[in-house]
Structures are given as C-alpha cells and as structure tokens.
Specification:
Layout: H1 2-15, E1 18-19, E2 26-27, H2 30-83, H3 87-146
Antiparallel strand pairs: 1-2
C-alpha cells in the first residue's frame, strides 16, 4: 500500500534528522516532510476506493447467493408441482420437496453467512490498516508539533 510506504519514508526522514546535542529533538527539513505528507493525502483516496470495491464485492456476493437460493427454491417448487399426480406420489413428492427446500434454505443461509463473514474479515483487516496508518500519522504530527 502506497500510504504505508510513504509513512515509512516519513519515519525514515525524521529518524535521519540531525539530533541536537543533549536532546532527543531532531532537525528535519520541513519542506521534505510536507512533500511526503502531501503524497500521503494524494494516496488516501486510492485506499478508500479499494475499501469501496470490497464493499461492492461483498454486496455482489450476497446478491449472487440470494439469487442462487431463489433459483433453488423455484426449482424445488416446480419439482413439487410436477410430482402432484396420485395420492402416494403426492406424499413422497411432498416429503422430498420439503427436504429439498430445507436443504436449499440451509445451503443459502450457510452461503450467505460465509459471504458476510468473509466480507467482514476483509473490511476488518482494512480498518486495522487504516487505524495503523492514522496512528502513525498522528504520532508523526505530534512529534512535529513538539519540535522546537
């Protein structure tokens, strides 16, 4: 990720700054730091776009799972109607159709839950990366503010 690379570069510039004698303060080129911060700002929309793509993909997967569940359900209902001919066949067909419906609903539910969990993990990992980047930027800003 470009933002993480830029933060590492920012950290490196700060660490390589000349330290003042008897102090932990460092002298750095503010223009160089501002340039890196500007690059971070420019890179952030790309990171946010990636998060939006993940959310869109999650919705697409959920929609596909729902469509598949609806198709399975429609097929089960169609099969049920075809089997309603005689009393004995009706009983067998009804039991089989109910089993298919239960299986289809269970499969659809499991697929939907799995999809939601997958998308949630992706978003959680992205959220952690963004938090880490934000914490690093905040730390660097505080260090810059504390420089005299």
């Amino acid at each position: 990720m470009r933002v993480i690379e830029l933060l590492a570069e920012l950290e490196e510039v700060i660490e390589k700054g000349n330290t003042l004698p008897f102090s932990s303060k460092a002298l750095v080129n503010p223009e160089e730091l501002i340039e890196i911060i500007d690059e971070i700002r420019d890179a952030m929309p790309g990171e946010l776009t990636e998060a939006k793509k993940i959310v869109a993909e999650r919705k697409k997967i959920i929609f596909a799972a729902q469509s598949k569940a609806d198709h399975i359900k429609a097929e089960a209902e169609k099969r049920l109607k075809e089997l309603i001919d005689t009393n004995e066949i009706t009983k067998t067909a009804s039991a089989h159709a109910n089993e298919m419906m239960n299986n289809a609903n269970a499969s659809a539910k499991a697929l939907k839950i799995g999809t939601k969990n997958y998308a949630d993990r992706l978003l959680y990992n992205f959220q952690l990366q963004l938090k880490e980047m934000n914490d690093k930027v905040e730390q660097n800003r505080n260090e810059l503010k504390n420089m005299k």
